[in-house]
Fold:
Amino acid sequence: MLRSELRLHAPLFVAQAAVSNHTGLIARAALAMPAAPFGSAAWQLPALVAYLHRLRQDEEDPSPELWRAHTERPTGPVPRPRIRYRKDGLHDPDAVCVLDIQLGPRDEDSGWPAADLAVIEQEEGACPFGRVTRRHGTEAIAAYTAQELTAEHARLTDRARRHHDTSFVRLADLAQRAAAWADNVRAAAHADNVHVQADRARARITR
Structure:
């Protein structure tokens, strides 16, 4: 489905992933949704963190099919991108927020899949993109997710106070709970990384 099915020139959020396997073969998949009101890094990064966490728990390597199925699955009050996107979000002026995701096989020691993230954002109608944020590894991606959700919580809390709107209060609470969850994933990834580093250090000493 093309963006014209959303509406021609509608501002878009795009999540595009390149997934490599143990042989180095790369497959790509991309999904899109309207940028308003939930097409932002704060609201969409939790789906990526949840996917990485699931792969760690299930001891599975990433694949385009698994990633697409996970992202398209409707869970909770926040919609996820479900429209197949066949352009390049990096060169589409309608894509105001792009998650450019690189995924690879799980690390045998830590159990976490390889993951690199670039978040490219531009103001609607502006060119080129105004901000690029890069993170490497699940721990850093989860920490960035918690940071973005914490900022979203503060923004929504302020709007709720100014507009006396309970819907903003509910969204702020959701953002706060999601931030705490993302930080728990960060802590788990950090603990695994610390254990791996300690094991490798001991292995070097005993050689």
Remarks:
- Confidence is low (pLDDT under 50) at residues 1-7.
